[in-house]
Structure formats: structure tokens, C-alpha cells
Design a protein that fits this description.
The complex is a heterodimer of chains A (418) and B (224). Chain A is an alpha+beta fold. In chain A, 56% of the residues lie in helices and 19% in strands. Chain B is an alpha/beta fold. In chain B, helix 3 packs across helix 4, helix 3 (102-111) packs parallel to helix 5 (146-158) and helix 4 crosses helix 5. Classes of the chains: A alpha+beta (418), B alpha/beta (224).
């Protein structure tokens, strides 16, 4: 009951000092909006990088023969999947799986006649890769890997090749140039093939763009003299389902006696993990800065309030209210400032986030990427909670000292105050 | 037993490096139901004496007993509780809470006592009626005249049914007629309910209305 009148008193006093309250509320809301927008921008970057890498290089899951992840680097051809169709058919049964596409990865030498360069080659199914590359739910972006000059691979067994942007720049390659790809076959012999550059691509991974090439999987298999594939790339309908599908598939595949290992995208996406870690840390610094701003603005406003209302405080104390009750009264004012400012900030953050996302922010190529892009604001619920909690806690902290000062006024002196 | 008993009370203030002796060796008793004026020029120490009896200042030396209780030994919280239950205050500048209505201002001290809402409103309305302001219950202080504000303050001082009401220059900010009316109202309440009033003033016309006048000059009682 006492709290009702205190809350009402606090609230009405805020309304009474409209200009000051508005200024303080603006400071709090701007802090909140800043948190939400910067956090949302980071989240958008994470989303873009994650989905870009999943939909170009990694897929959501990769299926290899047991042992590939530990020993596959040195002898990749010892770990080929013998029955990829059976495994693929089995995985496709899962309703969460959108696509299973085969790949075979190998090192090769790419020769233009003048220069020979070591490359990382992938034999891929053009149709499957095209489907995998399609991004869903990322603003201002359609493809995880995009051919920006020439054409993508089309036929499964053509003698076409697409090369990464960095590699094309290094070797000065253009569409319709002819190159020779030299490989060691599965059996250990040498083999070479003349190929026509069909297109130049960029992906979310600079590393892949600098050294990567792709050829149709049948062509790769005939070049390497094998019928097997190395990897089945699994694309899910939703990235959030990765762990769930990973666990079910792992159990089911082992249960069926397939000697395979499943690797989720996040175990492969080392760069993504480091980016997230770095940005999260920056976000924490931002939280500290915003809290500082909120604390200082409320502190200032409360101090002014208390100086102005000294006689009122003296009166309330003379009427028999204890120091602790005076303190509650002013902490309540700070709390309301934080609550209202925080809520306004959420509203402002969501609205400006939507507007910015619709317009898009033109961005230069990100670290680890080759192409300019358009950023948006990805507002996650945790950002809203964080912003609100930051403003509430900061407001309570910052009103605590002024409130204490008010509570420790000497009644008779406070009454004499003019 | 006297309602108020003051024994050899001293109050000093530090003013820079000098010490001001605001009150020196004050002894007095006030009985229940008295209507007493403390009179003296400004700076004579009357407000200090009122503040000390009102438990909003602590004496340098001496003892104050209110209804037999030695209030000089109480800590800040105990003093606050004591004021809340036993004392009422009326101030020279009215000191209503500007954001609350007249009714809420009168109710305000009762929130401390967890009085049920219906009773709280009833008591406050009754008192507003007593001071002739039942039509102004929903008015904010800034919408009231000085005299009306002081009436609200009187209602507020009485709402907890205190034994003693202390009024520091209650008429100093009012014109003479209004001041006289306020004092007559206080006196009527004193006669009707038996509430003890002590008020300070330097206005000779107001002093005339008191049952008893304690004169104080330079911190010393010169006449009683």
C-alpha cells in the first residue's frame, strides 16, 4: 500500500519535470537502441557468415568414411565412401534433410600453359551444389556461392571448370580460357585433363576463393579413376536443427552398420567461431559503455531532482517516514526512468532495425570474404532482454547514491532549504 | 504527567569556525490540551526549540520527554516512528507535496500506518471537511490559495490523530485575515479534540490568541 503511493509519487514527479525526464529517457533509449542495433548488426554478420559458409563450403553436416577426420588429410583416397547412394538414400529419409549431394576433394595442379599453381579441387554435382548454395532467410543475399562472371557448372560430366575469384586473379583467368588439371589418381598414377573455364565464383570463404576450383563429379571421378565419393554434404531445412539431426542420423547410421562419421558445420567453421567470439567480446564492451551512459545520465538527473526537492524530502521525513523509505521512493523514480527508457529503447531499436534492414547497409568485403555485401539488422530476443536489463539495472544502481544522499539529509536542515 | 517536559536544553550550531548558541538552558513543561505560542524575534531560537520538541533535530545537551518518553535517546528510525504516531507538523511554507491532490496530501501520513483504504479516505475527507475544503479534495496544491494550502496542511497534521501538533510560524506567509482564520481554526480544533498545539510566531496579533505565550530571546526564555 505504501509502495502504491510511493510508485505513484515517483511517477508523477517524473511527469512533473517533463523536460528533464525526456532528456534522461532519451539518453537511456538511445543507449538501448545502440545496443540493439549494434548487437543486431553483429547477429546479421554471424547469420550471413554462417549461412554463407554452410551454403557454399560446409553444408550443415558432412558424412565421411570413419577415420577421415583424423587421417584423411594425409591420405584422402583411403577414406572413400563405397556405397554413397545407399547412405544418401538413408539420410534423405529424414524429413529435416533438404538435400544430400556428393563431393570428392583433392589436391591438384592447375596449369595455364605459362603458370602452374597448386589448387584445392572439388568434384561436385552441379545440380546439388546449386540447390545447396541457395540461401533462405538472409536479407539482401541469395547465394552462398555465386558465379559472378561466366556460367556455373551445368552438366555432370562436362569438361568445364569454375575457379575462385582470388585464383582467377592470380592466374589471370577469364571464362572460355583453357586450363590443364594435373592430379595423382586414387591408385597413385598421374593423370591430366584439359578443361574450359566456365565461370568465376566467390563464396563466403576467402581461403576457398583463393585456391578453390570445382569440376563436375563424374569428370573428377574419371580423372581420379574411381567410382567412389569422399563426402556426402547434407543440407538441412533449418540450421537450428543441426544438433538434433546430427544425433539422430549418427545413431541411425551406426545402427544400420554404416562405417561413417558425421561432422557438423560448426566443427569445420573455425573462422566463423573466431568471428563470433571476437564480436561477442566487442558487444560486452558496448554493454559496459551503454551502462556507463545510462548510469551517468540518471545519476545527474536524480541529483538535480534531490536538490530541488530537498524541502519536500524534509517534509516527508518530518511526517514520520524513515530514511529507508525515502531511499525506496527515489530508487523507485530511477527504476521507472530505466523501465520507461528501456521500453522506449526497445521500441525504437525494433523500428529502426526494421527500417535499416529494409534499406540495407552497403558494406565492403568482410574479413575472410571477397565480395561487397549489404548488411541488415538481425534482432534476436536476447538483444531485447539484454537492453532492457541493462537499462533497469543501471538505473537502479545510478539512483542508489542520490537516493541515499536524500535519505541522509538532516530533517531540520532540509526543511530550511530554499 | 506533562505532555512535554524540557530539561536544561542546549543547542549549539557550528557556523564556520564559530559556535552559535541557539538555545541556552531551556526548561519548560507543556500540559495536554494547551494552546501555546512560542514568541520571539527571528533568530531568537523559537524554530530550533520547536524542531527539538518535534524530534527533527537533536539537542547538544539536555533532555526532552514527550508523554514520559525520553526522545533524546532514540535513533533516527525510532524518532521517525515516534513522529509518525505522536506528532503533527504545520510549516510556514505549507510544504504540501506538489504532485499530490489535497486529499492525497492529507492521506499521505496514513500510508505509513497501513490504514485500510476506505478508512484512510474517510479520515482524510472528514478532516478536509473540518477545515472547510471538502470541495477541493481533488485539487493540486498549486490550484489552492495560501490559506487553503495551510488548511490542507492542518488536516494532514491531524490525520494520524497526534497528541501534539507543532506549527512553525503557520501564519507568516499569509495575509493578516487569513492568518487569523487559520489560527482560529487551530484553536477550534484544540478546544474540540483536545489536541495540544505549540506554534511559533512573531506576530503580536497572533500571540494574543494563544492561551499561553513563552517568550524567547537569544536562546533564553524571558517570559512564560
Amino acid at each position: 500500500m505504501k509502495m502504491t503511493i510511493f510508485a505513484s509519487l515517483a511517477f508523477r514527479n517524473l511527469l512533473r519535470n517533463r523536460t528533464r525526464t525526456l532528456i534522461t529517457l532519451s539518453a537511456i533509449s538511445f543507449g538501448c537502441i545502440g545496443l540493439i542495433l549494434v548487437g543486431g548488426f553483429f547477429e546479421d554478420t554471424f547469420l550471413r557468415l554462417r549461412e554463407g559458409q554452410i551454403h557454399s563450403v560446409y553444408g550443415h553436416l558432412q558424412v565421411h568414411k570413419q577415420g577421415f577426420s583424423t587421417r584423411g588429410k594425409t591420405s584422402p583416397f583411403d577414406f572413400l565412401l563405397e556405397n554413397p547412394q545407399d547412405i544418401a538414400a538413408f539420410i534423405k529419409d529424414d524429413p529435416n534433410v533438404a538435400l544430400v549431394t556428393p563431393r570428392i576433394g583433392f589436391s591438384a595442379l592447375l596449369s595455364t600453359g605459362e603458370t602452374t599453381y597448386g589448387v584445392f579441387a572439388q568434384g561436385v554435382d552441379p545440380k546439388g551444389e546449386d540447390q545447396l548454395a541457395t540461401l533462405d532467410g538472409v536479407r539482401h543475399a541469395e547465394k552462398g556461392i555465386a558465379v559472378f562472371e561466366g556460367q556455373d557448372l551445368e552438366a555432370e560430366n562436362s569438361y568445364d571448370i569454375i575457379v575462385g575469384k582470388g585464383l582467377a586473379d592470380t592466374l589471370n583467368l577469364k571464362p572460355s580460357d583453357t586450363v590443364t588439371l594435373l592430379v595423382t589418381t586414387v591408385a597413385g598414377g598421374l593423370n591430366a585433363l584439359d578443361l574450359t573455364v566456365q565461370g568465376i565464383f566467390f563464396s563466403a570463404s576467402e581461403e576457398f576463393d583463393d585456391r578453390g576450383i570445382r569440376i563436375p563429379i563424374r569428370t573428377a571421378q574419371s580423372l581420379l579413376r574411381t567410382d567412389e565419393v569422399q563426402t556426402l554434404v547434407v543440407c538441412l531445412r533449418k540450421t537450428e536443427d543441426t544438433d538434433r539431426v546430427l544425433n539422430t542420423l549418427r545413431d541411425r547410421l551406426t545402427g544400420q552398420g554404416f562405417e561413417v562419421e558425421l561432422i557438423p558445420w560448426y566443427e569445420m567453421a573455425d573462422f566463423y567461431r573466431r568471428v563470433v567470439e571476437l564480436y561477442r567480446r566487442q558487444f560486452h564492451v558496448l554493454i559496459v559503455i551503454v551502462s556507463g551512459i545510462v548510469i551517468l545520465s540518471i545519476f545527474n538527473s536524480m541529483n538535480m531532482t534531490i536538490t530541488e526537492r530537498t524541502r519536500e524530502i524534509g517534509t516527508i521525513m518530518a511526517l514520520g517516514y524513515r530514511r529507508s523509505e525515502i531511499q525506496q521512493l527515489f530508487v523507485a523514480e530511477g527504476f521507472f526512468l530505466g523501465l520507461i527508457g528501456g521500453l522506449l529503447g526497445l521500441l525504437g531499436g525494433i523500428l529502426s532495425g526494421l527500417i535499416i534492414s529494409t534499406v540495407g547497409i552497403p558494406m565492403p568485403p568482410p574479413p575472410g570474404g571477397t565480395a561487397a555485401w549489404t548488411a541488415a539488422i538481425e534482432i534476436k530476443p536476447y538483444l531485447l532482454w539484454t537492453a532492457l536489463i541493462v537499462s533497469l539495472i543501471s538505473s537502479i544502481i545510478s539512483s542508489f547514491y542520490p537516493a541515499r544522499k536524500a535519505a541522509h539529509l538532516v530533517v531540520a536542515e532540509a526543511l530550511r532549504h530554499v | 504527567m506533562s505532555l512535554v517536559q524540557v530539561d536544561s536544553l542546549f543547542k549549539d550550531y557550528k557556523l564556520g569556525k564559530t559556535t552559535v548558541h541557539a538555545l541556552r538552558e531551556i526548561n519548560l513543561t507543556i500540559e495536554k490540551g494547551e494552546f501555546t505560542a512560542i514568541a520571539g524575534p527571528s533568530g531568537s531560537g523559537k524554530t530550533t526549540l520547536l524542531n527539538l520538541i518535534g524530534c527533527i533535530e537533536v539537542p547538544t545537551r539536555g533532555r526532552i520527554l514527550i508523554d514520559g518518553k525520553d526522545v533524546t535517546t532514540l535513533d533516527a528510525d525510532a524518532l521517525a516512528d515516534f513522529r509518525a504516531s505522536r506528532l503533527g507538523f504545520i510549516f510556514q511554507t505549507f510544504n504540501l507535496i506538489p504532485v499530490l491532490t489535497a486529499l492525497e496530501n492529507v492521506e499521505f501520513p496514513l500510508f505509513k500506518h497501513a490504514v485500510p483504504k476506505a478508512e484512510r479516505v474517510n479520515r482524510a475527507m472528514e478532516l478536509l471537511d473540518t477545515v472547510g475544503l471538502s470541495d477541493y479534495a481533488e485539487h493540486k496544491p498549486e490550484e489552492l490559495s495560501g490559506g487553503q494550502r495551510q488548511r490542507v496542511a492542518i488536516a494532514r497534521a491531524l490525520v494520524t490523530r497526534p497528541q501534539l501538533v507543532l506549527a512553525d510560524e503557520p501564519t507568516a506567509n499569509l495575509d493578516h485575515d487569513t492568518g487569523t482564520q487559520i489560527l482560529q481554526l487551530m484553536k477550534a480544533i484544540n478546544k474540540c479534540s483536545g489536541t495540544t498545539f505549540i506554534f511559533s510566531t512573531h506576530d503580536p496579533l497572533i500571540i494574543e490568541q494563544a492561551d499561553r505565550t513563552i517568550r524567547i530571546v537569544d536562546g533564553v526564555i524571558t517570559a512564560d
